């Protein structure tokens, strides 16, 4: 029986195979990240091409901004990914990765929104008591009235999120 010399063992081939698998796994991760960013760019371009859509509703109007279209398009791509070919579809792992990227991106967006609103503080102060009463109504309506009713209906943990104020964005930042 011939024994392999030191450094020339059969185990070395296994190590090479594992390192090749790790490299191909890294290439797959890079290609899935590129695929994620390409889908995001396509969705962004389509949403910006649609633009803001105003819907007249009684005395006012509802404005659907491109962010709403991007959200709807992203949901449609996620749902349709099961039927798309593997090379362009987005699997569940990529969707989870995009959710982890979305959270810090929204934090930056909300911080920017807070900075933009900060420049309009004189206008906010000029509106006077109207905003004070509006925020008081948000507090009274949601916490004092909505939370007890939700708890009486048997809604436990969800009641906290459901009765959180209408203006959640500044609170999240």
UniProtKB/TrEMBL annotation:
<feature type="transmembrane region" description="Helical">
    <location>
        <begin position="63"/>
        <end position="84"/>
    </location>
</feature>
<keyword id="KW-0812">Transmembrane</keyword>
<dbReference type="Pfam" id="PF11299">
    <property type="entry name" value="DUF3100"/>
</dbReference>
<protein>
    <submittedName>
        <fullName>Uncharacterized protein</fullName>
    </submittedName>
</protein>
<keyword id="KW-1133">Transmembrane helix</keyword>
<dbReference type="InterPro" id="IPR021450">
    <property type="entry name" value="DUF3100"/>
</dbReference>
<feature type="transmembrane region" description="Helical">
    <location>
        <begin position="36"/>
        <end position="57"/>
    </location>
</feature>
<feature type="transmembrane region" description="Helical">
    <location>
        <begin position="105"/>
        <end position="130"/>
    </location>
</feature>
<feature type="transmembrane region" description="Helical">
    <location>
        <begin position="136"/>
        <end position="155"/>
    </location>
</feature>
<keyword id="KW-0472">Membrane</keyword>
């Amino acid at each position: 029986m011939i024994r392999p010399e030191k450094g020339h063992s059969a185990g070395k081939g296994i190590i090479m195979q594992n390192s090749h698998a790790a490299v191909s796994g890294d290439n797959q991760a890079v290609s899935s990240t590129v695929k994620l960013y390409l889908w995001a760019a396509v969705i962004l371009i389509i949403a910006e091409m649609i633009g803001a859509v105003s819907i007249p509703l009684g005395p006012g109007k509802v404005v659907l901004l491109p962010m709403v279209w991007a959200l709807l398009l992203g949901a449609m791509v996620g749902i349709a990914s099961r039927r798309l070919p593997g090379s362009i579809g987005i699997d569940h792992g990529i969707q989870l990765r995009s959710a982890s990227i979305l959270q810090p991106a929204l934090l930056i967006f909300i911080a920017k929104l807070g900075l933009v609103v900060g420049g309009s503080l004189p206008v906010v102060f000029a509106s006077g008591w109207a905003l004070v009463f509006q925020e008081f109504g948000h507090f009274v309506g949601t916490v004092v009235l909505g939370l007890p009713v939700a708890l009486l209906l048997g809604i436990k943990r969800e009641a906290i999120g459901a009765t959180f104020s209408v203006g959640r964005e500044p609170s999240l930042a």
